């Protein structure tokens, strides 16, 4: 029997006491599970009316189990045991967590960075590719599909035998793929991407990789009655209130694993929460940290609530903190149950914040800006404000660079724009998140240096996650964008642009929209990847070490 625990202290507990009774009185939980589209107000009704089937997926996704198992057995019988997932946002993050927690291998390609794409197109003799796109029009995923199709053909392998399409019924991708002879598995069309963990988008790649997806559905189904109950003890109502009803709103939600046994859940929750709530000048910014020792956990600010993801068998009757000013939540439960818990809690948070948790207007604006740049041809980038070694420096969103001519000076100028009480730093690295993974280790040092929460996102992955909050949430962030010339570009078959062109347009489009919203953006472009990356990392870590020593 799956169980869930949500225990809060400090302001988070006060928020539960103040707001859960109203949610219970409004019958929010039972109406949500009855798919009542009116729960978020008239402006959200048309969208929510076609986005609520996720509440019943633990039951309605059961017919997929046999189909996935049969396909896995067929592929294994043919010696195909390597699974690559091409997808973005909700199409990739849930399978990544499911497979990592199950201890099975899944290659997740959620990037248009050419070096990363090239590194995924290997071992084709034993590879099956799952191409996941709800609309079928996602340019990243379409480009990845084209690259794999050409690679299979180049090896003399029929791509229709090795590419599996997951998409909504009736989408352009659905119709064209069926006409071309590909295997297509349809997902529930009445579920948005970030709520799709238990649809075909989450289950097909995970099941093909060998995860026990039936147990995942079992764990979710076991808690459905608890989460649909109009009861003060409903853990989803408690979590939603603790997230979104603190007074004043603590809009930074720091997520840290504390022995949960679930690998990568904060990364999945980050996308769900940020993209669902970060709009109309409000929202909740998830801050994924790696350790209890990280600054946002050890010394949280007055705008921070800390969530500890604990093991199922641990005593979470208290969060372990005694400082009444701290806002803390302990959450426990198996993965399948937690997927549904966080989805219901986020929907409840949307009601408490007065926003529509099912749209993502600013994600769309960045996509349009990128597409416009791509259609026009990237051409030569604007002249840099300065060049320091292997790094070009550009500043957008105001006249704040203050004559900086070196990377350290430019970083200092950016951090000078931080709101000391409510601000945050977003590092946005359009690099290869596998080979350049070590760069993420600068995050805790930057938090110590600035005394503010710091998020680290790999582009373009974060565009489907915190990217919505960056533009639609409160104007309190400063943004450090790192881009690079690839080691080697890669053509997109059948297109006039390359992967290098595309990722450059995504970065430029994102920065452009941020600047239009008045957000300060520092662009550091590595003209030589290795030398520039070493230079940027040194500037970030040296400044952090200096600040830490100075404040000791």
TrEMBL record:
It catalyses: alpha-D-glucose 6-phosphate = beta-D-fructose 6-phosphate. InterPro entries: G6P_Isomerase, SIS_dom_sf. One of its GO terms (cellular component) is cytosol. Belongs to the GPI family. PROSITE patterns: P_GLUCOSE_ISOMERASE_3 (PS51463). One of its GO terms (biological process) is glucose 6-phosphate metabolic process. This is Glucose-6-phosphate isomerase. Keywords: Gluconeogenesis, Glycolysis, Isomerase. It comes from Pedococcus sp. KACC 23699. The keyword S-adenosyl-L-methionine does not apply.
């Amino acid at each position: 029997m799956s169980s869930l625990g949500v225990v809060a202290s400090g302001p988070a507990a006060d928020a539960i006491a103040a707001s859960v009774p109203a949610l219970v009185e409004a019958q929010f939980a039972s109406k949500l599970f009855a798919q009542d589209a009116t729960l978020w107000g008239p402006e959200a009704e048309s969208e929510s009316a076609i986005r609520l089937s996720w509440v019943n997926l633990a039951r309605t996704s059961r017919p997929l189990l046999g189909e996935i198992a049969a396909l896995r057995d067929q592929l294994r019988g043919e010696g195909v045991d390597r699974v690559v997932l091409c997808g973005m946002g909700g199409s990739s993050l849930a399978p990544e967590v499911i497979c990592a927690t199950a201890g099975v291998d899944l290659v997740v390609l959620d990037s248009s960075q050419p070096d990363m794409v090239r590194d995924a197109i290997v071992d084709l003799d034993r590879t099956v590719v799952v191409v996941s796109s709800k609309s079928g029009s996602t340019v990243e995923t379409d480009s990845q599909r084209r690259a794999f199709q050409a690679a299979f053909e180049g090896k003399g392998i029929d791509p229709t035998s090795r590419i599996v399409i997951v998409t909504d019924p009736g989408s352009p991708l659905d119709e064209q793929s069926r006409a071309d002879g590909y295997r297509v598995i349809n997902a529930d069309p009445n579920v948005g991407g970030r709520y799709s963990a238990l649809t075909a988008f989450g289950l097909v790649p995970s099941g093909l990789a060998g995860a026990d997806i039936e147990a995942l559905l079992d764990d979710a189904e076991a808690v459905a009655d608890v989460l649909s109950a109009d009861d003060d003890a409903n853990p989803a109502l408690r979590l939603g209130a603790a997230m979104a009803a603190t007074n004043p709103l603590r809009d930074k939600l720091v997520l840290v694993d504390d022995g949960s046994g679930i690998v990568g859940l904060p990364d999945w929750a980050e996308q769900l929460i940020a993209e669902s709530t970060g709009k109309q000048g409000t929202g909740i910014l998830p801050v994924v940290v790696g350790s209890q020792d990280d600054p946002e956990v050890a010394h949280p600010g007055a705008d921070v609530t800390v969530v500890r993801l604990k093991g199922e068998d641990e005593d979470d009757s208290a969060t372990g903190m005694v400082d009444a000013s701290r806002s803390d939540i302990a959450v426990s439960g198996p993965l399948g149950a937690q997927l549904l818990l966080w989805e219901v809690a986020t929907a409840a948070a949307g009601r408490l914040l007065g926003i529509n948790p099912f749209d993502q207007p600013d994600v769309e604006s960045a996509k349009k800006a990128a597409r416009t740049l791509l259609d026009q041809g990237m051409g030569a980038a604007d002249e840099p404000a300065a060049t320091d070694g292997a790094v070009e420096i550009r500043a957008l969103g105001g006249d704040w660079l203050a004559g900086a001519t070196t990377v350290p000076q430019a970083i200092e100028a950016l951090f000078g724009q931080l709101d000391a009480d409510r601000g945050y730093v977003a590092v946005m690295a359009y690099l290869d998140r596998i080979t350049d993974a070590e760069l993420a280790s600068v995050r805790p040092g930057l938090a110590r240096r600035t005394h503010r929460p710091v998020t680290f996102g790999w582009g373009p992955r974060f565009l489907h996650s915190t990217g919505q909050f960056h533009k639609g949430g409160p104007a309190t962030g400063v943004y450090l964008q790192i881009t690079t010339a690839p080691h080697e570009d890669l053509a997109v078959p059948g297109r006039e642009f390359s992967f290098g062109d595309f990722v450059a347009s995504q970065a430029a489009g994102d920065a452009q929209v941020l600047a239009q919203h008045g957000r300060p953006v520092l662009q550091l472009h590595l003209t030589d990847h290795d030398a520039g990356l070493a230079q940027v990392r040194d500037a970030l870590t040296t400044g952090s070490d200096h600040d830490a020593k100075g404040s000791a």
